[in-house]
Amino acid sequence: MSEPSVDLAWMRLLVEVDRKGSLSSAAEALGLSQPAVSYQIRLLEERFGLPLLQRLHRGVRFTEEGRRLLSIAERTVSEVDTLQRSLRAARRRPTVRLATDYAFSSLWLIPRMHAFRQSHPEIDLHIVATQRLAQHWREDADLAVAFGAGAEFGPEARLLIPEHVVPVCTPALARTETGPSGLLTEHVPLIHLEAEGVSPWLDWPAYLEKRGMPRTQQDGAGDLRFNTYALVIQAAMAGQGVALGWLGVVDHLLDANLLVTAGETVTVPGRGYWLVPGSGSEAVRLLATWLTEETENPALKR
């Protein structure tokens, strides 16, 4: 069934008269009576004060003035019909709402979003970013990529990026501050990512403990603390100190030599970024497949 057209009254009437060549045929195409069409044409001619049509033995022909008016009507009808089709098509486009955190959205997803849009131009992607995945996130999103332990997200969750953490800093800081024990000397500021309550990710005290290093090194003068990971990384890129870098999230910065590793990698088994299923639409399935394929890096799965 064709979509109903926007009513442009006399403009659409003139276009149909030109297409059909007669008032009776135009009336039939528009679902009107011939007297009604004739009346509309007569009103137009009265308002313009000039004849717009020449009545022939069979059909009608536009006068010069009528042809000028028809040109405006054709252009207007065409543009309005095109806009109507475009708006209806846009409204029918599937939209997938992805819930995730600020770190994943800003550092992993945004640099790769063009690839998803090229692969699936028919899908609109809406990012719902928060610091931590809310308990009732399905009310606002169709799919989630969330950080934590697998037990938090249920048996259907899939591990995308395991938690492999390594200290990172700028190349300049690495050159000037390297000591016998690496960069983690007491006078080098550490950049902390703060959490409410118990940290759900590896923080500096836990990292230093796993590396068997004195915990006092976490209390160096000039340490910086932020509540979002994007700010942590920005501070590290500005040479403000050493941050913990999550491999799989900061890889593009390491590849571009904007940051370099400044210590040993520590792994936390069973923890990382998980793909948490939500709704089961085809568009959601396509995004989930793309996320899985993009994160399937053997170096991150070891």
CATH topology of the largest domain: D-Maltodextrin-Binding Protein, domain 2
Order of helices and strands: HHHEEHEHHEEEHEHEHEHEEHH
Assembly type: single chain
Helix content: 40-55%
What is the number of helices? Answer: 12
Count of separate structural domains: 2
Distance between the termini: 55 Å
Instruction: Please name the CATH architecture of the largest domain.
Output: 3-Layer(aba) Sandwich
Supply Rg: 32 Å
Global shape: elongated
Query: How many β strands by DSSP?
Result: 11
Report the CATH C-level class of the largest domain: Alpha Beta
Mean pLDDT equals 85
Work out the strand percent: 15-25%
Low-confidence stretches: 298-302
- Structural class designation: alpha/beta
Structure summarized in a few sentences:
The protein has helices at residues 10-20, 23-30, 34-48, 64-92, 102-109, 113-119, 171-177, 204-210, 229-237, 251-255, 282-295, 298-301; strands at 53-55, 60-62, 95-101, 124-130, 143-149, 158-169, 190-193, 224-226, 242-246, 260-261, 266-276. It has 302 residues and is α/β, with parallel strands linked by helices. It is elongated, with a radius of gyration of 32 Å.
List keywords for this structure.
alpha/beta; D-Maltodextrin-Binding Protein, domain 2; two-stranded antiparallel sheet; 9-stranded mixed sheet; 12 helices; Arc Repressor Mutant, subunit A; disordered C terminus; about 300 residues; 11 strands; single chain
